[in-house]
Write a structure and sequence with these properties.
Blueprint: H1 6-14, E1 24-28, E2 31-35, H2 39-57, E3 64-67, E4 75-81, H3 91-104, E5 114-117, H4 121-133, E6 137-142, H5 147-155, E7 159-163, H6 169-180, E8 183-184, H7 187-194, H8 203-210, E9 221-225, H9 230-241, E10 247-253, H10 258-264, E11 296-300, H11 302-316, H12 322-341, E12 345-351, H13 365-371, H14 376-388
Parallel strand pairs: 4-12, 5-6, 5-8, 6-7, 9-10, 9-12, 10-11
Antiparallel strand pairs: 1-2, 3-4
Helix pairs in contact: 1-6, 2-3, 3-4, 3-7, 4-5, 7-9, 11-12, 11-14
């Protein structure tokens, strides 16, 4: 098992590789000047940053969709629809931030590949930005990643590099970066720091701006799911910084360590197999997860995630990925608690990516049978809540 400190050590060694430019030494009196300036590189860098910023400038904000609940409850449930980004997922925001961070730090260089460890959606979005600025892209992913995500990576000019054990993605990504002279993006370390959590049109600021004219403009809860931990860190920090009373809940699927690490306070906790819910759940506590910033965590059975995402389609006519179901299940449990306590207010969760990427998984009864997942009890629990306002014991 690769320890949590292995990736930064490897990255530190990687970044000592010679830069594209050669230092130019000049003497001026008693001063020795070292000039790293490379006119061609700086011109390329300026254009690359412009292209990435232009992507944000021409992209409209994502919608807040309402999940229908009985009016008498006095509770509004929203889903922030991140599937409408150009690359179809929440990870488009992250990939844009990571590329700007890497470019402005001088880590991404012309002609050198960008490598990322990913379960799919981040790789799709990073392949898009790599193509935008004209550098190669390699995605290191579990072999079980959905075929549609692999197709999208290739569509954007990227290449998929598979591993049989998801726990080896970090080490393999770092190895490829050294081998190719490229840059290992390492979303699991840098997600929480690459995004400006104080504002600058991040996802949290967007949510609060869109709720301004709703009947409950300050949500009681925002529910996120954890892949890198970067989204929950951004939202939680923004809430604290802007002094809102909103609480942050993180929903964690099976075969993931965030819940156990958070409840035990052990950052070194690990698990032996990968998550079936693509995009979230990790075999270790990732460096970008900030446990002290959030208020609550829920452990969600995979069958419950699938039941919730199918219930979403029935409710609003939209298919979504399994990670959306994980967050929706936890949101519905919070709604049930609010009903039981007679509290009114709003709850926000995320529609992370579209369901057409997972037709052979979460929308396939054959896949459910193969995985030994029975969603019927969880489907009935959701239906009971929506009819009676009571969560089954």
């Amino acid at each position: 098992m690769i320890g949590a400190s292995a990736a930064p050590d490897t990255l530190g060694a990687q970044r000592k590789e010679p830069a594209v430019s050669t230092p130019h030494l000049t003497r001026t009196g008693e001063t020795l000047d070292v000039d790293h300036t490379d006119v061609a590189y700086r011109s390329w860098l300026k254009e690359a940053v412009r292209k990435v910023q232009a992507d944000a400038n021409r992209s409209a904000d994502t919608h807040l969709l309402r999940f229908p609940l009985p009016e008498k409850w006095g509770i509004d449930l929203y889903l922030k629809d991140e599937s409408t980004h150009p690359t179809g997922s929440l990870k488009h925001r992250l990939a844009r931030s990571l590329f700007l961070y890497g470019l402005c730090n001088g880590w991404i260089r012309p002609g050198r590949p960008v490598i990322e460890a990913s379960s799919g959606s981040t790789a799709v979005s990073e392949a898009y930005f790599a193509k935008l600025i004209g550098v190669p892209f390699i995605a290191v992913m579990p072999r079980a990643t959905s075929a549609e995500k692999c197709r999208l990576i290739e569509f954007h000019g990227g290449r998929s590099h598979f591993v049989d054990d998801s726990r080896t993605m970090y080490e393999e990504s770092a190895r490829l970066a050294v081998e190719t002279g490229g840059h290992y993006m390492d979303q699991f370390t840098y997600a929480e720091r690459a995004t400006d959590w104080r504002g600058n049109n991040n996802i949290a600021e967007s949510i609060f701006r869109q709720l301004e004219l709703e009947r409950y403009p300050e949500p009681a809860w925002i529910v996120a799911t954890a892949g890198t931990g970067g989204t929950s860190a951004t939202i939680a920090r923004y809430v604290h910084y802007t002094q809102h009373d909103t609480r942050i809940c993180v929903a964690d699927p099976e075969n993931s360590c965030f819940f156990e690490g958070w409840t035990t306070g052990d950052p070194d906790v690990t698990c032996d197999c990968g998550s079936r819910i693509e995009g979230i759940g990790r075999p270790r506590m990732e460096p970008s997860f900030v446990p002290g910033a959030i208020d609550r965590m829920m452990k969600v059975p995979d069958a419950a995630s699938v039941a919730a995402v199918r219930a979403l389609e029935k409710a609003i006519g939209r298919k979504a990925g399994g990670s959306t179901g994980t967050g929706l299940w936890s949101s519905l449990k919070i709604v049930a608690e609010m009903v039981a306590e007679g509290r009114q207010g709003s709850v926000v969760t995320l529609l992370c990516d579209p369901g057409d990427r997972y037709l052979d998984k979460y929308y396939s009864d054959a896949w459910l049978a193969e995985q030994g997942l029975d969603i019927q009890p969880y489907t009935e629990a959701i239906e009971s809540l929506l009819k009676t306002g009571v969560w089954p014991s």
